[in-house]
Amino acid sequence: MSGEDGGRTNLRMPEDDEVFATVTEMLGANRVKVRCADGTERTARIPGKMQKRVWIREDDVVLVSPWDWQEEKADITWRYEKSDADQLRQEGHIQ
């Protein structure tokens, strides 16, 4: 079930409290700077369960869940592969 056959794959879409974001800068200490689809720059945290399994780099497309009590911070909940990010751009979900 890969996207190599030219067909559309079903991707994980944002839930109610999640937004698309692009990683703009690596800050260290499991933190990254992201530009969210709603136009806000946030400092996002890479949760422990993702740290060793998912490598996050600059320009990656991710899903973040903004914090309720601090609008300028968020947690990363998902990282898209490059081919998945290209599909999201083609379908108009992200720029």
Automatic annotation (TrEMBL):
This is Translation initiation factor 1A. The lineage of its organism: Archaea, Methanobacteriati, Methanobacteriota, Stenosarchaea group, Halobacteria. The gene is eif1A. Residues 7-81 form the S1-like domain. Keywords: Initiation factor, Protein biosynthesis. One of its GO terms (molecular function) is translation initiation factor activity. Signal peptide: none annotated. Belongs to the eIF-1A family. It comes from the Archaea. Seems to be required for maximal rate of protein biosynthesis. Enhances ribosome dissociation into subunits and stabilizes the binding of the initiator Met-tRNA(I) to 40 S ribosomal subunits. It comes from Saliphagus infecundisoli.
